[in-house]
Design goal:
The protein has two domains: 248 residues, Putative sugar-binding, N-terminal domain (Rossmann fold); 160 residues, 3-Layer(aba) Sandwich (Molybdenum Cofactor Biosythetic Enzyme, Chain A). It has 14 helices and 18 strands. The protein is α/β, with parallel strands linked by helices.
C-alpha cells in the first residue's frame, strides 16, 4: 500500500469517525474498519490514502488495552503507512485505571521502537485548545473555552472525570516516561529554530506534548509531526483529530493531497431516522429536547434490565411506520445526581444495540445517529459492522458514514456516530433533514 499517508487507531468510535472526517475533508480518501484490515480488505478500496481502526480502548483497563493494542499496532506497522496515529478524544478522556493514554504510549513506543512520542491534543475546529500544556474546551457551540478541570461535562464525567487541566500532570499519572512541551510561543518561531527545539526536546524526553490553539498553528504542528517521516519505519504519534488536520496542512504544501475532493453536505434522509442515545452529557440532553419539540417521537429506554429495555421497541416501531423519526434515550437507572448507576452503565451499549437491531429489522429506516462514544463502539460491535466510509458532512466531528455489515440489518445503512459533546442543539434534525451546521 505505497499510496498510504497515514493509518490511525481510534480509542472510541465517535473519535474515529472524527479523525476520518478530518482526513476526508482534506482530500485524503479514508476508510474506517472495526479491526485491523487485511491486505485484501484494503485492496477493495482503490486510491486509498488512509485507513483507521475504530476501537474501544477508551473504556478498557490498561491490561486489556495492552492485549488489544499490541497486535493492532503491529498489524498497522506492517501495513506500511509512514505515520501511525493513536487517536484520542480531544478532551483527553482517560485515567490510570480506564482508557490510559499513558499505556497506549508505552505500548506504541515499544512496538515502533521509538524513543520519543509526540502528542497533539488541541483541535481548534472542534473548540479544543491546548495552551502551555493546559487543555481548554468549549461546552456547546456558543460557549467560551473552559479549563477542562472546570468544564461542566468533562470535570464530572461518570467514568473518567478530568480533574487536572495540565496534560503533563494528568499524563504523568499514567506513564513513567518523561514529558516535555513545545509551547504556543515556540510554534511562532521560524522553522529551523522550531526544528532545533523539537529535536533537542525529543532527545531529552520520551513524550513530547505540542500545544495547538489556533488554526494558524496547524502548519507548524504538521511540520513537526511530519519531521519523523522518512526513516523507512512507521512514525508513531498520539493525539486528537488535530493530528490529521495539522498533517494535512503540511501535506497540502508538499502537494501530497488536494483540496478538490471535498465532500458535499448531507442530503435529507429517505424517510424517518432513528436517534439512539447512550450519552448523558448536557449537550446531548439539549439535542434530545430539541428533537422532541421538532417532530421526533421521544421514547425512553429503561436500561436497568434487558427485558425492560425491549419495551421501547413497540412504541418506536409504531412511530417509525407512521413516518415519524424517533429519539431513544436511557432512563430508569439513574442515581440522585443524574449519573447512571454502574450496573446500568455497563449494560447501556448492548441493550441499546439489541433495541436498534430489532428496529432496523422491523422497519425500512436507512439512517441512524448514535450518541455516545462508548455506546457507539458497543453498538457497532453488536451490529457486526466491518467497515465505514464517510459519504457526507454534517456538524464538524460527526460525519455521515455508510456502513458495511454483511449479514446484519445494519448493512448499507447510513450512520452518524456522535460524541456526547459534539453538535449544535438541532443536530438530530440536521441528520434527518440534511442541514449542515454553519460556523
Amino acid at each position: 500500500m505505497n499510496d498510504l499517508l497515514i493509518s490511525f487507531y481510534g480509542d472510541d468510535f465517535t473519535g474515529s469517525t472524527d479523525a476520518a472526517e478530518s482526513l476526508c475533508l482534506a482530500g485524503v480518501k479514508t476508510v474506517l474498519f472495526t479491526a485491523p484490515p487485511t491486505p485484501s480488505q484494503l485492496g477493495r478500496f482503490p486510491c486509498l490514502r488512509a485507513f483507521g481502526v475504530a476501537g474501544v480502548t477508551r473504556a478498557q483497563p490498561p491490561a486489556v488495552m495492552e492485549q488489544t493494542l499490541r497486535p493492532a499496532f503491529e498489524a498497522m506497522r506492517q501495513a506500511g503507512a509512514p505515520i501511525v496515529h493513536y487517536k484520542v478524544c480531544s478532551t483527553f478522556d482517560s485515567s490510570p485505571a480506564v482508557g490510559s493514554i499513558g499505556k497506549a504510549i508505552d505500548v506504541g513506543s515499544d512496538v515502533f521502537a521509538q524513543h520519543c512520542v509526540p502528542v497533539v491534543v488541541g483541535a481548534p475546529s472542534l473548540g479544543r485548545y491546548c495552551a502551555f500544556g493546559n487543555l481548554f474546551a468549549r461546552s456547546g457551540t456558543g460557549s467560551e473555552p473552559i479549563r477542562l478541570d472546570r468544564h461542566p461535562s468533562m470535570s464530572r464525567h461518570p467514568i473518567t472525570p478530568m480533574t487536572e487541566a495540565d496534560l503533563r500532570l494528568h499524563l504523568a499519572k499514567q506513564t513513567q516516561k518523561s514529558i516535555g512541551l513545545i509551547d504556543a510561543t515556540q510554534l511562532s518561531l521560524g522553522e529551523c529554530q522550531l526544528f532545533d527545539i523539537y529535536d533537542a526536546q525529543s532527545i531529552e524526553n520520551e513524550v513530547l506534548l505540542i500545544d495547538l490553539m489556533q488554526r494558524e498553528q496547524l502548519r507548524s504542528v504538521g511540520a513537526l509531526l511530519h519531521r519523523g517521516v522518512g526513516s523507512g519505519e512507521a512514525h508513531f504519534v498520539v493525539g486528537s483529530s488535530g493530528v490529521g488536520e495539522s498533517l494535512c496542512t503540511c501535506w497540502r504544501e508538499k502537494n501530497l493531497v488536494r483540496d478538490d475532493d471535498a465532500l458535499q453536505p448531507a442530503g435529507a434522509a429517505p424517510g424517518p431516522i432513528i436517534a439512539i442515545c447512550g450519552s448523558c452529557s448536557p449537550i446531548t440532553a439539549g439535542q434530545i429536547e430539541h428533537a422532541s419539540r421538532g417532530g421526533f417521537t421521544e421514547v425512553k429506554v429503561d436500561v436497568g434490565s434487558s427485558i425492560r429495555a425491549m419495551n421501547a421497541i413497540t412504541p418506536a416501531t409504531s412511530a417509525l411506520r407512521d413516518g415519524k423519526s424517533v429519539v431513544l434515550h436511557t432512563a430508569g437507572a439513574t442515581l440522585p445526581d443524574h449519573r447512571l448507576a454502574p450496573a446500568a452503565a455497563s449494560g447501556i451499549g448492548p441493550r441499546l444495540a439489541r433495541v436498534l437491531r430489532e428496529l432496523l429489522q422491523a422497519t425500512s429506516v436507512r439512517r441512524v445517529v448514535i450518541a455516545g462514544g462508548d455506546t457507539s463502539g458497543q453498538i457497532a460491535n453488536a451490529l457486526e459492522i466491518e467497515s465505514m466510509e464517510m459519504i457526507a458532512t454534517l456538524a464538524r466531528g460527526a460525519p455521515l458514514m455508510r456502513v458495511t455489515a454483511p449479514g446484519s440489518p445494519a448493512d448499507a445503512v447510513e450512520m452518524v456516530f456522535k460524541g456526547g459533546q459534539i453538535g449544535p442543539p438541532d443536530f438530530f434534525s440536521s441528520v434527518r433533514d440534511g442541514i449542515r451546521e454553519t460556523t
